[in-house]
# Entry
Amino acid sequence: MATEITVPALGESVTEGTIGEWLKQPGEAVAADEPIASLETDKVAVDVPSPVAGVLQEHKAEIGDTVEVGAVIAVVEEGVEASAAPAAKPAESAAKSDPAPAESATVTMSPAVRRAVLEHGVDPSTIKGTGKDGRLTKEDVLAAAKAKNAPAPSPSPAPAAAAPGTAAPSVGRNEERVKMTRMRQTIAKRLKGAQEEAALLTTFNDCDMSAVIEARTKYKDLFAKKHDIRLGFMGFFAKAACLALKDVPSVNAYIEGDEIVYHDYVDISVAVSAPNGLVVPVVRDCDKKGFAQIEKDIADYGKRAKEGTLTMADMTGGTFTISNGGVFGSLMSTPIINPPQSAVLGLHRIEDRPVAVNGEVVIKPMMYIALSYDHRLIDGREAVTALKIIKEAIEDPTRMLIDL
# Structure
């Protein structure tokens, strides 16, 4: 019996996706719930599983095609053995007849790793995985691709002398054109839309990080032992942001039509780097969570972003965003808001700087912080006040315990 495979529901407000990769080809056996295709949506890559076991009969869409939720993309013949499947196309048959290590069929790869394998044309069965249980990571694939493409050392003839009065031709000036992924296209549209629609403005301040660093140094071992997670800086800034958003509600609100939507909860979108670009999974109810749970949520999102296993639900919602450019060495920046949110907090690198304390110049570990906001909703006084509350909470973490 033939079973049609359709595009599953992709999350709130997401109605279509792009075929990014076929994981199964016509004629190949498919197990129940085994992914047959990878769909790229505006936010994440989603695997499409087969609901039945059988043999994949045909593809109904090509790589790069945009398909709507509910559209038929493949047909699986249920209960048929692979040997009874229609013969593959000549080109495919030739490709499948090439000798390959037996273990190649059992290599487990995340969507991000699969994309990297296809992009760089490497054989995953020849790469030693460094991930959990020996799984391949994107870094493993990139390292293999780099080694594969490294030119063999050999003497090269001296370049011919250029004719008098002419410039010598440049060597190694190559170009490569790569189609933007659906996620990158969406990021570009959203960020450009934020610039065009919102009245963006950024206010700056700086933080003395001495108290936070001292607290981390003093309690990091006990914290890790009790909660099985490292005590980082993001937990401090998330809780400090909760204080600010409680005192200045407009920073935690957004504009919808001719109305302002206020929230009595704090869902913080945390910008993390993923293989296809920056994504912002949401740590929900930060105002009700403790440091340990916030740190666990952020660590889990960071891990899954690298593996390419974040879901649409992980990135739905969010009332405020924190972006940490400091992990990449940024000294100062003007972060851009994540629509429809109205504000984003930018963190930067910590560096020792001379500052005046009680009339004396001392060296302190300082960090510039920035709050970009939509001036249509948030007045300058409110933005400056919110950032000042965050600064004061970081410089005196006790404020976070007694709700000041």
